Amino acid sequence: MTPQMTTGIQLDGVSRSFGEIRAVDNLTIDVPQGSVAVLLGPNGAGKTTTVRLITGSLRPDAGSISIFGLDPVEDGQAVRQRCGVVPPKPALYDRLTGRSNLEYAAMIWDAPPEAIDEAAERFAIDDALHLKVAGYSTGMRTRLALARAVLHDPDILLLDEPTAGLDPESARAVLDLIRELAGSGRTVIMATHLLHEAEGIADQVILMGAGSARAAGHPLDLAARYMKDPVVIIDAEDRQSLSSLESRDGVIGTSWNGALHMTIESIEILPDLVAELVNDGVRLTRIEPMAATLEHLYFEMQRQLREQAPPPGVAQQLPRNPKGSPP
């Protein structure tokens, strides 16, 4: 029997307004311990406010929040001790060196001195620690903030647009860190509007819009729910010979985009379609079932959710154990 994962972060019917603006609206999410949840949505969807609510820096107007059983408002210090946070525009001490910034954070979190060099090396800023932060580039500032966030070996990592301004190598280091922490039992929430960042690392994607969770689940489950009709890319030496595909049984539709994109009822009918084409003398040069990427999934979910117009705030039930057994 597969054991259940322990809930790490839970928001139940949480709302938060700023004046007449409802930033978070009846938000319900459940993030198991040791998993990676990606808050995905456009700017203004409520992602940053959600992160601030989790740390207790904002108090909800309604609903409840539990972080490993702790209330981030009532037990704010205990919650923040377990969190590493990287905001979109991290506040750093510009007149101090990078090392002094990390030493100050290590003193606050009671982190060991060796953690400073380990974190700096991980994010490739070890050769710039002697410089004042005022001279750092945007990417270096982000890397310093990331190093500061992991000094105290937190149980939870909250990343709000973590790769903004980073070069590809540093961005890869961030994503590798996410995988590493989740693999060692840490819980990670990453807020982003960049679809490729969530690809391959998300145990669950939470699609946010207007402050609510419009849909949530493992990417494969969401793909099965929102992208039921598979697409196959197909091409031939004589492209005119593919014109009959649209009228064949099981083919929903076709469109040209570099090659023929064929939407079919089920992937099981593909061998028969290919056999029919070959028997008709078609010389095929490409047959490629199209994998559902998060980009395809995101826009398809958005389209269907607009059509369905679901009530705001209620997420689909999240999988309790998306990866299987906990580490």
Report on the architecture of this protein:
The protein is of the alpha/beta class and 327 residues long. Among the domains are: 7-82 and 154-225 and 296-308, 3-Layer(aba) Sandwich (Rossmann fold), CATH 3.40.50; 229-289, no CATH class. It is 31% helix and 27% strand. It has helices at 47-55, 76-81, 98-109, 114-122, 138-149, 168-183, 195-198, 219-226, 270-279, 294-308; strands spanning 7-18, 21-32, 36-40, 62-67, 83-86, 156-160, 187-192, 204-209, 212-217, 231-236, 251-257, 259-264, 284-289. The strands form 3 sheets. A 6-stranded mixed sheet has the order 5-6-7-3-8-9, sandwiched between helices. It has a 4-stranded antiparallel sheet with strand order 11-12-10-13, with helices on one face. The protein has a 3-stranded antiparallel sheet with strand order 2-1-4, with helices on one face.
Write out the strand line-up for the largest beta sheet, numbering strands in chain order. Answer: 5-6-7-3-8-9
Q: Quickly give the structural class.
A: alpha/beta
Helix residue percentage: 25-40%
The radius of gyration computed from the alpha-carbon positions, rounded to a whole number of angstroms, is 23 Å
> What is the tally of beta strands?
13
Keywords, please?
alpha/beta, disordered C terminus, six-stranded mixed beta sheet, Rossmann fold
Short description:
The chain contains ten helices and 13 strands.
List the helices and strands and how they pair.
Blueprint: E1 7-18, E2 21-32, E3 36-40, H1 47-55, E4 62-67, H2 76-81, E5 83-86, H3 98-109, H4 114-122, H5 138-149, E6 156-160, H6 168-183, E7 187-192, H7 195-198, E8 204-209, E9 212-217, H8 219-226, E10 231-236, E11 251-257, E12 259-264, H9 270-279, E13 284-289, H10 294-308
Parallel strand pairs: 3-7, 3-8, 5-6, 6-7
Antiparallel strand pairs: 1-2, 1-4, 8-9, 10-12, 10-13, 11-12
Helix pairs in contact: 4-5, 8-10
